[in-house]
Amino acid sequence: MKVLPRLVLVLEAPAFQAPRAIVLALLSHGCVVRVYRDSAEFERALIAAAARHQRHIALLAGRTEFVVRAATRVANLGTGVVLAALVAPLTGAGLQRVLQVGIGVCWPPTAPPAQVAQILSGLTGGGDTSGVAPEVPNAQNGQRAAVSPGNESCWQLASQGWVVQAPGGARVTLTNIERSLVLALLAAPGQRLAHAALMAAVAADRPSAAAGSPARAARRLSVLMSRLRRKFVAAGCEPPVQSVRGQGYALCVSFGSQAVAVAPATVSAAAEP
């Protein structure tokens, strides 16, 4: 049986161009790269690759709105293709949106080309897959999703943001609210946020959880964070989140950029600690 080459299908937004260095890096990893500007042609190529059972991945390149629309259309095709994205600018709010529509891994266009190529090559079944963790359940819909490869010396946010992977491989699956909290901290300047800003992130996912007086909301946040920290202890690793007395919460570990690359979000002065 003939083995087909690994295929990366790129859809670029108008007036946006995926960095040529990334394309060249993919070629150096043995991938066939095809770049499209026409959405219909891109979708036909995805369907054809799935029909051939060819190992492939879809890379969407553009601003947040374009990537979200394109990912939604691709998901409706039902081919089950793995989605990746180059998003400019990649803000905290934009990161949450692209993860919610099924993007499994994303970077800003300035990400190191070799890093992007290594991960995309691994997701198509080629290259060094020693850093690829086993499949884990997707906490949102019960389907199985592959954890993106990463540097084992760093913490990783994987499986579309539903799994935190600690150095050494321990994995903690997040609830909806826990995921919102971790994403908010990752996207914040200095990876630190005040109680009010974190409760705003919770309210976006579940308004009732942030209802009531500020004191009640703060107690609710304390309970949520305590539960989150206990999950990491139960998994045999130190919690990546710590309380900053009188200010809020902060990440106290280093997250790698391989699984999900994050640019600083715009946070109002009132929300900062």
TrEMBL record:
<dbReference type="InterPro" id="IPR036388">
    <property type="entry name" value="WH-like_DNA-bd_sf"/>
</dbReference>
<feature type="DNA-binding region" description="OmpR/PhoB-type">
    <location>
        <begin position="144"/>
        <end position="253"/>
    </location>
</feature>
<feature type="domain" description="OmpR/PhoB-type">
    <location>
        <begin position="144"/>
        <end position="253"/>
    </location>
</feature>
<dbReference type="InterPro" id="IPR001867">
    <property type="entry name" value="OmpR/PhoB-type_DNA-bd"/>
</dbReference>
<keyword id="KW-0238">DNA-binding</keyword>
<dbReference type="InterPro" id="IPR016032">
    <property type="entry name" value="Sig_transdc_resp-reg_C-effctor"/>
</dbReference>
<dbReference type="Pfam" id="PF00486">
    <property type="entry name" value="Trans_reg_C"/>
</dbReference>
<protein>
    <submittedName>
        <fullName>Helix-turn-helix domain-containing protein</fullName>
    </submittedName>
</protein>
